[in-house]
Amino acid sequence: MSAESPTLEQTSGSVKTKATVNTLSRVGKYTASRLITLFITVVIGVYLTILIANMGGYVDNIMRGEIREGIAMRLSQDQNYKNMAPEDRQEYVATLVSQEEKRRGLDKPFAVRSIGFLVNALQLKLGRAINMTSDSGSRLVSLIILERLPATLLLMATSNLILFFAAIFIALSLSRRYGSFIDKMVVGLSPTSSAPPWFYGIFMILIFAAFLKWLPFGGMIDSPPPAAGLPYALSVLKHMILPVSALIISALFISIYNWRTFFLIYSSEDYVDMAKAKGLTDRDIERRYILRPTLPTIITSFGLLLIGIWTGAIITETVFQWPGIGRATFRAIGLYDTPVIVGLTIIYAYMLAITVFLLDFIYALVDPRVKVGGSK
């Protein structure tokens, strides 16, 4: 008796099962490969930051000089030290210097310590700052970052989100009015974005703070601080006007110009002309045939924007005396505070790697043409 031949349903089910297994296998291999690649990139980036922040080990010499100078100043007020014999003084100073260098880890070669910095950083063990302290007096790098993070998130989120959505909305409107006066004006003003935000910030301070006296010079709140609640919120809002305006103005016109050009490219496609011939409204055409194809690019820009919110603006925050991550980075660089610099860098590196990793899968969700891991 011959075996029964497989039915069409069985054959179809077997094919679907194999396709599912192949897809899961491809996605799994791609995910593992991507994670390994991104991790290696993070390791290299963080280690280079450690080398640069320590100037290849030269900062050790600066720290040793500071240790000797600090001990000498302290001992100059010690009467018992003055009564010692010269040989005893030298030995006592050498002992104190050796103890302090050991406490800071300077008794080990920089090459060895750099590997230790790297391992601890990758595990988010940020350690203690060398010179900087938190508002509560702690030297824990994690606490220093956490205290300054809310100010940066408030400033950067407000300015970047307003900039992002305003630029897309205005650019989409200009793509419908190509060649109009407003369109030409935006194109003409786009070179103004070559100036950084702190450049506009200085002029705004001179005009609105020094001359007109409408707004404060800098800081986050008035001094003395107002009572909690609405007065406090209004004070913060008043201090945000100038830095937020500087950040928006410095990038607004070039952002509008970039998005406008991007939308114009998709507006000239044949399928858009066909949609117009069918009588679809401008709103439907923009939503279905212009915004949807550009959605991966919009998502990428938005994802990178979210990362930028956490990093702050180093010079702009310093100009406006805004107590955020950017100003902390500026101080850390000036004080050669390597643990703080590395701590800020590792957080940025991890966030960038996670965002890049997630974007690949988000692309596959919003655009059916994109397949995770490629197609075979």
Polypeptide structure, described:
The protein is mainly α. The protein has two domains: 17-131 and 337-354 and 368-376, no CATH class; 148-334, Orthogonal Bundle (MetI-like fold). The protein has 15 helices and no strands. The protein has helices spanning 8-53, 58-75, 79-82, 86-103, 110-122, 141-175, 181-189, 197-211, 230-267, 270-277, 282-291, 295-311, 314-319, 325-334, 338-366. It is flat. The model has no long low-confidence stretch (mean pLDDT 81).
What's the total count of β strands?
A: 0
**What is the strand content?**
under 5%
CATH architecture title of the largest domain:
Orthogonal Bundle
Q: Please mark out the parts with pLDDT under 50 across 5 or more consecutive residues, or reply none.
A: none
Q: What structural class do the secondary elements suggest?
A: mainly alpha
Q: What would the CATH topology of the largest domain be?
A: MetI-like fold
**Mean of residue pLDDT values:** 81
Number of domains as seen in the coordinates: 2
Largest sheet: none
Question: Helical content, roughly?
Answer: over 70%
Helix and strand run:
HHHHHHHHHHHHHHH
CATH class assignment of the largest domain: Mainly Alpha
Distance between the termini: 41 Å
**Shape verdict:** flat
Number of helices: 15
Radius of gyration: 29 Å
